[in-house]
Design a protein that fits this description.
It contains 23 helices and 25 strands. By secondary structure, it is of the alpha+beta class. The structure holds adenosine-5'-diphosphate (ADP) and magnesium ion. The site of magnesium ion (MG) has 5 residues, from helix 2.
Length: 658
Amino acid sequence: MPRIRPLDKSVVNRIAAGEIIIAPSNALKEMLENSIDAKSTAIDVSVKDGGLKLLQITDNGSGIDKLDLPLLCERFATSKLTKFEDLESINTYGFRGEALASISHISHLSVVTKRREDDCAWKCYFLDGKLVPPPTGGSSEPRAIAGRDGTSIVVEDLFYNVPSRLRALRSKSEEYAQILDVASKYAIHTDGVAFTCKKQGTNANDLVIRASLPAKERIRAVYGSGVANELVEVNAEPDLDIGLIKCTGWVTGANYDNKKSQRPVLFINNRLVVCDPIRRAVNQLYAAYLPKGHKPFVYLSLEIDPKNVDVNVHPTKREVRFLNEEAIVAKVVDAIEVELSKQDSSRNFLTQRVIPQSQKRTIVEPEVARPAKMRSMSSIKQFKKPYEKDMVRTDFNQSKLTSFVKNDTLHSEQQPQPQVINLTSIKNLRKKVQTQTSAELTAILGKHTYIGVADYERRLACIQHDVNLYLLDYASLCNEFFYQVGLSDFGNFGKIRFTEPIEIGKLVKNEIYDTEIINYYPNAPSADDVVQILNENSDMMDDYFSMEIDDGKLKTIPMLVRNYLPSFNKLSLFLFKLATKVNWKDEEDCLGGILKQLALFYVPEVVTDDEGKAETAKALEDTIFPLIKKRFLATTDLKRDLVEIANLPGLYKVFERC
Ligand code: ADP
Ligand code: MG
């Protein structure tokens, strides 16, 4: 007797089915797609025991012709595809004619269906791809019964004959949660269709979506107002050259406060899929916009030229691959970033947050920045920017200031039309930074792990790199950092606007001229001179530094980095020094000098109270150090501000001896 024998056909089919349907939610997904393909406008799902006992889906779609019923569960039988070439252009959800066949091999399946034009509905039972008599006996032929237009498919005892699959399943409630999740996601995506989902025998629906609800409200119904209120709409321009026909969606913005991680709800050609390259790129983008540990909600719908999409990389068709992946991912991320940065410049900055109550001045009220103007798509193209992943430098020896200066857009987005800066003076200043770069130090700061503040008065923080622990002077580091931000974003800063303009003369008089501080500046001009100097240069200050000065009143200061406000305690000294320390006669001296003063102004101040410490700690950890890690060229003179205090091998030795 030969030892190699073909397996029994029913076993083969069962194995194949088990690969396509690995959980009840897979079966549901296939059936939902069929109902949507059948142009239904209402779909109801009812489930018992996590879908294992019963999974019923009822739609009001086209119904199935009685003559087609015998083939309904035949493998590779489909109404959607006739020749091989159709595979390339197919635009419906299903296409392999495999789903119902598979399900019929691993469950007891029955169907009631009625087309509008038919007088009655037809009911029939399936097993292993074939029509079978009902459990009560009789003919296997479809039986006429009363019924409504549409199709109702009942799947019972799923996996009854695949014990290994049954064992691998999660608890019934987890499987139900999966089912609800799939139904909810299709509900979000499928405009014009009503959805419900519930456990059988209960009256309470776990999902109710009316047909008329728009996408945003669908998201609200599923994920709640916490998500919905923070949504912004995403819309990328089609790019047929790379096969991107459409890209739309809804995503949460920078103010969404959520720490629970949630995979992007991604539809490609109307099919719920996962796509790791998109997920990774989106997460990376958000990392630059959200506080550490915060997670976005993302719903995206992409239409990609079907002939570029390969859905058959995975038996459950869950994963997809497509041509021009990198370019398409970049487009998608770009579209989201446009929205995020738009929002970014219109965020509300509450000055109370940085000014301890006791020190709050009447002149700085909670302020609302003016909403950013929309940038047209053409202007974005013109100012082509990199994707976040390109801004994370990995080769530190090659990093050049210009390479991220020019490309840096975190800030330039905040102006309607970024200015391209061609000033020789600025270029020189940028070059200077570049020539002073220490590759070693840049590498340490570029790959460090931030530990925390060690001393708020001396302004020392602790970081780890490799096996070494360092103490560093964060005031000094921030000074250089803000100077570089100033240089890179020169002419393109966002604005922090005071609700009420600040009278420069009054402020410097109160805080400088009428105090002992003025004694340190024996040759200082008068307070009126300070006002006059700033007034005279107000056009330039606005153009290059986003400082609006109008008739001696300061209306805005530049937003050097998002989520960070300088201490307003230092505002008076900053204005005073601008007027007195900057050489206004020489272009390079002047611009460089202003940038130096700006940097000093933005350096976190010494704090002693708990509230101040908490705020400084947060700013350093969430905003400044992440940016330093990402885009900072450490200059050689910072070496004196960084001290190695321990290394792990050394520490281990100490403990071994104990
Ligand atoms: P596919 O969707 O790949 O064609 P399926 O096994 O999922 O394969 O379905 C087989 C066929 O059954 C479909 O092509 C369609 O004609 C029909 N069908 C399945 N479900 C429905 C439904 N809810 N309403 C109308 N027709 C359906
Ligand atoms: Mg199908």
